[in-house]
Amino acid sequence: MRKRELKNMEWGILIAAIILSIIGMVALFSATQETEYDDFKKQLIWFCVSIIVMVIVMLIDYEFLVKISPGLYGLFILLLIGVLFTEPINGASSWFNIGFFSFQPGEFAKIFVILFLAFTISKIQQKGKTQINKPTKLLIVLAVVGLPVLLIVKQPDYGTAIAFIVATALMLLTAGIDKKYIIGSILLIVIAVPLLYFFILPEHAKTRIDIFLNPESDPRGAGYNILQSQLAIGAGGLTGMGLLKGNQTQLGFLYPKTTDFIFSVIGEEMGFVVAGSIIIIFVYLITKCIYIAKTAKDTTGTLIASGITGIFLFHVIENIGMVMGLLPITGVPLPFISYGGSSMITNFIGIGILLNISGKRQKTIFVK
Predict the structure, then answer these.
(1) Cα→Cα distances 105→38, 45, 300, 330, Å
(2) How far is it, in rounded angstroms, from Cα 304 to Cα 353?
(3) Is residue 300 within 8 Å of residue 148, measured between CB atoms?
(4) Which of 47, 54, 205, 310 fits a disulfide with 167 by CB distance 3.0 to 4.6 angstroms?
(5) pLDDT given for residue 368 in this prediction
(6) What is the mean pLDDT of residues 12-22?
(7) Where are the domains of the chain?
(8) What does the alpha-carbon distance between residue 284 and residue 11 come to, in Å, rounded to a whole number?
(9) pLDDT by residue (tens digit) across 179-204?
(10) Whole-model pTM?
């Protein structure tokens, strides 16, 4: 790797990711004292592994990753099919258990589907930017993302499925999709949402929506988690109750406190100052991701950066929104902060690809 590429890289996104990871591990340390810090120790290992994987990805030209993306896409489609035959965990068949490591193919598939989508859209646009607006071409793109989305919904994992959709939407907007498709999609969503609610969604999914709208209707049942989360965040005040001292966290009222509700732990024990700082860091990270997309040397790089931005954006908004009672609970982890090896490694792979894209651009062109 040349010095110019290293100089061009947006190192700020890596610094932001590391800061978020450190805050997450501090929160995990406090949240896992009753289990002798098992999850904290594992997360520390996954953080180190993630940094190594990120460096490897950073050194591989993203154009090469795009070239091999059809094979990687096919591999993960097979894994998403295979995981459906595993033993369900918390009602979802989303994990392969390999020793002490639970491998979640849906997490890794985010990156490889984005790479293959960028490959597909770039091929379509070789004959002209407007090719993406031809119905047959657009259907090809939607089929590429539709297959993994359907398999993930089958698990079921609606949060991850929506993350794919958000990433695809941003990539299509970047590719220059016609406004008529955007307006048509909005109208379709308006019509489809009530139909999905009344005729397609399973009962547990309907319950989540109902509880989101009125958690007090079942405070000891389905609404319990969100009410406890709101209590924890509210109790933290400005500076928090202190590490290892949060009532909701330490007395077991928050569940699952190491994954879905880790932001509630931070809000209770570290307070508004740290919780607010996390939001600011995420805003900085996502803003830098958008800048990388805008300044990439080619359309492929722009598309990939847009897709990764969409993944980060959805996860941040959904996780923080759901723990505050602003959005329905979907089990979406908070990037770099929630416990989980698959999530941590996937997020740092995304950072590695973004660094690679930023390194390849002609940065001096954009200084003026």
Answers:
(1) 23, 19, 24, 18
(2) 8
(3) no
(4) 310
(5) 36
(6) 97
(7) 3-363
(8) 12
(9) 888 888 888 888 887 887 777 777 77
(10) 0.91
